[in-house]
Amino acid sequence: LKMSWFWFYLPLHLLMVACLCHSIKAPTTSSQQSFKTDLFNFYHSLILADGKETTIHLLKDIPKRYYFVLEESRALAAFTITVTPCDVPIEWSILVHKASATFLGKAAQGDHGTQEVSKSQKAPSMVSTIFNYKGNSVETYMGMSSHSALYLLEFLSTERDTHITVYLTTDTTSEHLYPELPMDPRIDVISIGHTTVTLTWKHSPPVLQHRENIQYCLLVNEKHNYKSLCAAETAIRSSGMKLPPTSALSLSPYLLEPQQVMILSNSELSIINKASSGEVRQICMGTKNTYTVPNLSPSTQYYFDVFVVNLLTNASAAYTGTFARTLDEPEPKVTELKDGKVIQVVLDGKNQKFYSLQYQARHKKIQFTFQLCHGQVQVHITKNGKTVALENISGLRCFSLKGKLLDTYLVQLRSMEESNSSVKVQVSPHFRKPLFPLLPESLKIKSFSKLRTCNSVTIAWLGTQEESKYCVYKKRTEEDQVWMELQSADMCSGPESRHKSEKVLCKYFYDTHLQRAVTTETIRGLDAGTLYLFDVYLFGPSGIPIRYHSKVVKTRKKC
């Protein structure tokens, strides 16, 4: 390094570091010791790329340093630094060492120059902090200098390991990497419904000039606002989900994760991420700056963030997020129940909403009767606001309740399946003649395999101690239709829904000894090797039928 011509072959930033490190041979004072520490930090730093967004990974409590050189020019030299935290708050600062042209010139003159530099070190340190920040907001620093200068950026995370993005540019005349936000970057809520929220925001200036390269993306969640798309992606990944890159939302092919749902309609692409922590939606709607978010839950607070995205660079800028609470769910319509009257209710399985029935007691003892027609239904009965019954019902179910005159009963019904369910409901005084017949212990139909022939089958079912009418029906079916036939069977429908040709017979029977209340029937005139669906209907005094569970039997092929 004593050869003066060697300095002219070094790049400027290495020349400055070399000169600064060489200068620390000066006598040691407290200020000079601080100066040496600053120079050591510069020496053990990485070069920060100019004109490119750099992703930096930070380990907890371990600082990371980058530097760049601003070279001398006739005019003022300007630069811009944008730091985007992608998770927790971080601390970052900018330090500068300003070196004059005289300093550099004499450093290139050999021993004599080195001595003059050493003398100059008796002056206070030339390293100073020009900016520092702590938080998780996207922060931009714009600086200028009339001298060549070496800048050091120091980053520190004190909460946990994280990552950030840093963008440096010294070419302030070129187009910005990040889309420009309007003067007022707020999102306005213009209407709120039970399941919708309508938002609007002012246009980003680039949208008005380069509509084909810019689009808006909206993020909806129930936790909090995000200050950058980078922070949103990190939070979603940490919850076990995967958010697609914004470029994927410009309708290019994208492979969805199992917990994701993609919806494309009216040129809008929605990605719905589902996890235990809640649902996160990302909707990209092109250059529209008004949007109604659909399919929200009532009485729920949502947070809304809008990002303007440059599709060419994948860089984004965040509007100031907002939040809104959807309106409370309207009180469900209540249907009044009357003594002895039967009503049939169809329940929407998709929305899982309750259907409410109300009854004011005119007797102390009453009985609610439910006949499940299709699906699976949950019954919740309250008396004067207190729960007296809560049960998932199947078949026929009766609840005998005791109370006071004018007690108010509320019955809430809900489908427990995604498909629609149906149920018949009746309430009556306990002493009134029951609407439905006395039921056997089981509504199953049994067939006897050994008694099957090519043209006949024998079936049996349980009866009761009360004389009742039983009707048997049969229907041919196919192997691939059996499951659908059983699933779609309406347990509330009677023989009136059947074709006359399907009727086999009707008979009366009972037995005072319940264990002997069993009947059998051999059905003849069947085709060999054919599947048949058999149904039995039980009629009580009121004439309302109860349907046994269907039985599928196949006749023998050869006899």
TrEMBL record:
Main location: secreted
Signal peptide (UniProt feature, chain positions): 1-23
The organism's place on the tree of life at top rank: Eukaryota
Domain called Fibronectin type-III: residue spans: 179-316, 437-545
GO biological process, one term: nervous system development
Membrane-spanning ranges: none
Gene3D superfamilies for this protein: Immunoglobulins (2.60.40.10)
Cellular compartments annotated: Secreted
GO cellular component: extracellular region
Keyword Ligase in annotation: no
Keywords: Glycoprotein, Neurogenesis, Repeat, Secreted, Signal
GO molecular function: heparin binding
Function summary: Secretory protein that plays a role in various cellular processes. Acts as a chemorepellent acting on gonadotropin-releasing hormone (GnRH) expressing neurons regulating their migration to the hypothalamus. Also promotes neuron migration, growth and survival as well as neurite outgrowth and is involved in the development of the olfactory system. May also act through the regulation of growth factors activity and downstream signaling. Also regulates extracellular matrix assembly and cell adhesiveness.
Protein name: Protein NDNF
